[in-house]
Predict the structure.
Amino acid sequence: MAMTLRTAAVLARGGFVDLFNTSVGMPEAGVPTMAGFVPQAAFARASGVLKESFRQSDPPISIPVVATHRIHSLAVAAKLVEAGVCDLVGLARPLLADAGFIAKAQRGEVDRIIPCIACNHCVNRLYKHQRVGCAVNPISGWELERGNEGVGEGSDGVEAGKPGEENQTTNGQTRKELVVMRRKAIAVVGAGAAGVSCALTLARRGHDVTLFERAPVIGGQLHLAKQVPGKAAYNDILVYWTKELQKSTINVRLETEFTREEVARNHNFFHAIVLANGSIPRPITSHVFPGASESGIVVPFSKILDGSVRAGRRVAILGNGAISHDVASFLLHDPRVARRVELFLHEWGVNLEEGTILPPDHARDRAPRNNRDVILFNKPDKDADLSWGTGWAQKLWIRNHGGTILNHALIEMIDPHGIHISTLPPDNRKFYVECDTIVWCNGMLPNFSVGTWIYEWMKDGARKRGEMIGDFSIYSAGSCRDSYTGDGHGEQDLMQAVHEGYEIGSKI
């Protein structure tokens, strides 16, 4: 750090710079900087050290200093500037989530800023050389095709044009969604990510929307996701969506099952139905792992994350995707340990005062443990498909906190006390892992509960019986996609669900 401060002073006095940006580097340093479990403003102290050095210079240096990395909220940014830690705050991912971040803040509409939840879908797409976009804002990255304002702007943020015209926002910008030529009454079934995205888009275009959700709150499986360490910010988008729905013209019907009787009561009312009722965990079956359904210790991941089942001390996780790694993080996390900045920096061996980083093994020695043994079994033929930008950090976090990720192993059988394992050649070993709990993370299936009876109702001659209007149509979005025909795949990430909901809402 001493060399950095001297170099900065020389550059400043030489008139070579207009401002200093205190970026702490990319993941190659071996310390997570973008992952969701990194506390906000974790590295802002680096800016403070530089500012303090400038103040103590003779004469003092007045060139502005910019703080960056994991500063996502207006409140955190304002606090840093007010405390004199920095002069400016550099935003990146928050501006992908909402390009109107600054404009809304200036208008005093802070609660209308689409929050960045640090999910890093944008970073993942960057590493894959794909078009950079945002999981919670389907406009971002698709401005030319879809418009240039954040989704969910609300009725007071859009001036409705004439039918067939593009919507005009209050600041003169243009949306690509056309105001509908004919206002339709549309039922959206399911208030998860896809359903909310679709409903808000439909309402903004002028449709009369009723949103059905059988749970007492919106959000679907995001309520499970937000329990995972590093994903607490997922609750921010739920709060935002809730407020946008309240401000919209959408009739939100919580704790309401969408049934055949509901359609019968409204068959002269609904012009279209959008199925967005999500997916369900694949059932526990011995066809996949012999003995799984009979062992009595195998539980679905959803019951672990929602707290209805408490895992024992010795846990095995079956699965190879993002869900299995999220469950491992959840089980290894000690909720008594506050994720404060100083604790995070101590754990990862970062000293911002001196500008030093301890070797990677240091984090494993200092990571807090909760006395639980967790083994995660990866598929023998491939590694887990996690985010390219931050997946390595989650795996490292799991190992540092006492978890074991076992690759290239085959599960031969599950019994009431554990798992029989064999390793692949050339090792060719067999061993037994005793378990108190085995968590089933073996993928998802489309939720057919609504799609099945709607398909049968339509096939059974509902139109001939006069139970639906002449131009009635049905759509599906999210992980229940095509569930009424039985072709749904059941697995989508947040970005896919939000974007698909938007696309369907834009074309009806």
